[in-house]
Specification:
This protein is mainly beta and 474 residues long. Helix content is 5%, strand content 41%.
Length: 474
């Protein structure tokens, strides 16, 4: 070592050989057309303004990205692709910061850069990864149900990516969904296109209608309930209300976000409508205005692409009387003798006339009762027939509008071809001395004979001029 009088030369050389050139430990990622900084600095920090500083890429010719010498940029030495785009932070050189700024990044800028101080033989490397901006295209298409009954195939495709991206499917809560393998294509511009298909099964969704007939009066408005379970937005679906006994069969059709008025049966034009704001909640109920007698029938509520449907039975009556609504409930085929109750929509007992009880030649009981429903009562009425002794009961419900006509309920049990089987099974459990089943017989409490059969329910709407009966399974 050469020692100067004030030891400055010795100290200067000593500090130069003690420093390091430091770059980032991780690759730097930049987007096309953005600006990026490739970090590089001297440790410990010291002024490098007077040093020769070079940024190079070994895979290029010429290899120079940026050169600083004698206090200025050597523009003519750099690779043409970087001219006007590479620069240092001049004011930061005195602090040892020799980071490089690249403007308007290109895909070709991706690579490994060397940041060096040649006279010190100190250098570091910076890897730059260049990506495209969020894809130039992102498309999710519906392939249709095809052979996947009850479901649709979704395809997602996105182009213009770099480097190679990952494609994921998520549900509404952000959870990953299983899907087929992603297909990746790299184009002549080195950008990637990815695509994936997802079988979106809709088999869990159901179209649900009411369990009981809907009753309406002539000239009133009525709602035929129908909804999707679990609730989901059906605004974009094809929705159809039809009646198979009509030609054309369409009552109402919703497609491509609008009503198809011209397709519907002329008798329903201007009278059938959906609740548009409720479609997003899965409510596809139909409103019929100014009900006609000819509106009575069975309606099909369906989503054709999902192959899901439900049926709604509409019973139409005529307002004739001025009093309350009279309901009659009758139930046959009971043993032992049952109890008949009327309940309102809140489960409260309704005051009704005395129950009539008949015991037939087959020793089975038939009970019937009538109740007048006043306006103060709930419109959802229940007729319940029960046997407290063996905790058996049957009940049926009906929704009655605030109207004036007579409705009769009949819970009818035991088909003719079932009677012989019932009696045969019953007698097998009863001693021969008790086959007549007299009311005062002491063995009446034998639980082995406490047998209940109920099979069918008929709802009859009684008008002044005619009876209209509707059958439905219990």
């Amino acid at each position: 070592w050469m020692l100067c009088p004030d030891f400055s030369t010795f100290c200067s050389f000593s500090s130069l050989f003690a420093i390091s050139v430091v770059g980032p430990h991780q690759p730097v990622v930049a987007l096309v057309d953005d600006d990026v900084i490739l970090p590089c600095h001297v440790e410990p920090a010291e002024d490098v303004t007077a040093e020769i500083l070079e940024w190079t890429r070994s895979d290029m010719n010429p290899r120079f990205v940026h050169v600083w010498r004698s206090g200025q940029d050597l523009v003519n030495t750099r690779n043409p692709s970087y001219r006007g785009r590479a620069s240092l932070f001049i004011n930061e050189l005195k602090r040892g910061n020799i980071s490089l700024k690249l403007s308007k990044v290109k895909l070709s800028d991706e690579g490994t850069y060397e940041c060096s101080i040649p006279l010190m033989e100190k250098k570091s490397f910076v890897k730059l990864v260049v990506a495209s901006h969020a894809a130039r295209s992102l498309l999710i298409s519906l392939s249709g149900s095809g052979e996947n009954r009850g479901g649709v195939v979704l395809q997602c495709e996105s182009a213009g990516w770099y480097p190679e991206p990952e494609l994921l499917w998520l549900d509404g809560e952000g959870n990953l969904l299983s899907a087929g393998p992603a297909e990746t294509l790299r184009g002549p511009d080195d950008l990637y296109t990815v695509s994936s298909r997802k079988n979106n099964a809709l088999t869990e969704s159901q179209v649900v209608g009411p369990h009981q007939p809907v009753v309406a009066l002539v000239d009133d408005d009525v709602i035929l309930p129908c909804h999707v379970e679990p609730a989901e937005d059906v605004t974009a679906e094809i929705l159809e209300w039809t009646r198979s006994d009509l030609n054309p069969r369409f009552v109402h059709v919703w497609r491509s976000g609008q009503d198809l008025v011209n397709t519907r049966n002329p008798s329903y034009r201007g009278r059938a409508s959906l609740f548009i704001n409720e479609l997003k909640r899965g409510n596809i109920s139909l409103k019929l205005s100014k009900v006609k007698l000819s509106d009575e029938g069975t309606y099909e509520c369906s989503i054709p692409l999902m192959e899901k449907k439900s049926f709604v039975k509409l019973v139409v009556g005529i307002d004739k009387n001025r009093g309350g609504v009279v309901l009659q409930c009758e139930s046959a085929g009971w043993y032992p003798e049952p109890e008949l109750l009327w309940l309102d929509g809140e489960g409260n007992l309704l005051s009704a006339g005395p129950t009539e009880t008949l015991r037939g030649p087959d020793d089975l009981y038939t009970v019937s009762s009538r109740v007048t429903v006043e306006k103060r009562h709930s419109n959802n009425i229940t007729c319940r027939v029960q046997q407290k002794k063996i905790s058996q009961n049957r009940e049926t419900h009906i929704h009655v509008p605030g109207s004036n006509y007579i409705i009769a309920f009949m819970i009818e049990t035991l088909f003719e071809h079932m009677k012989s089987r019932f009696l045969k099974n019953l007698r097998r459990t009863i001693p021969h001395t008790d086959t007549n089943l007299h009311p005062n017989n002491g063995t009446r409490g034998d639980k082995s004979r406490d047998i209940l059969y109920t099979h069918m329910c008929h709802v009859c709407l009684q008008q002044r001029t005619s009876d209209v009966c509707v059958s439905m399974s219990m």
